Structures are given as C-alpha cells and as structure tokens.
Description:
Strand content: 35-45%
CATH class: Alpha Beta
Oligomer: single chain
Structural class: alpha+beta
Amino acid sequence: MTDLTSVTSWIDGYVRAWNSNDPRDIGRxxxxxxxxxxxxxxxxxxGPEQILxxxxxxxxxxxxxxFDWHPVAVTPxxxxxAGTTRYPGQTYSNLWVIRLADDGRCxxxxxxxxxxxxxxxxxxxxxx
Length: 128
C-alpha cells in the first residue's frame, strides 16, 4: 500500500543511498523483481544485481547533490513526486513515478529529468 508516509520513508532511504553509495542502503530500497527506469524509454535495470551495478556505475559523489521534493499524486498503487536536484553548476527538475510493494520497498521506479538552462551571463555592454 502506497501512502505519503511510506513514500516519504522510501525517499528518505533513497537520498541516504544516493549520498552513501552503500550497497546495503541501495539494496534495502528495491524488491527482488524491481524495475528501475533511468529514463522513461530505455531498458530498465531489473532486479537487485542490475540496479546495484547500474547505480554504482552512475553514482554521484557523497555530498555533491541536494534534493528537494513534494508529492504530486499519491494513490494506493503509485506515487508521483516532483523534485529538484542541485549539483554544483547544474540543476535538474525531476518527476519520479514510484510503485511500492506492501513492505515499503520499490517494485518500479521511473525518473524523468530535465536540466535547467544555464543562467544568462550579465552583459556590461549597453546597446546604443
């Protein structure tokens, strides 16, 4: 059953794993048959071994990111959350679709992300 409490708990665990890259933290997040879509239209990582390998191959260094989020929709079957990920020099908007199992682990995760445009440089030139 998915509710805001279980989603919040899962995202707290995800952020902990994101910042630790500890295989135990990552492994606690997903069911044995979980699918992790790094992008919506690519083959997902399937199962704990692929998810762990994919995660560690694309890991961020601890402390490189901050993540803020809020729920868009939470139903008994899924949660959709909007987030903002900040890296030094780059910010992304995220939309996550999360399907939790009854035990609170994720059985399907899809992330949609968009890079924010770089800030416009300020010109000191005054046009005539």
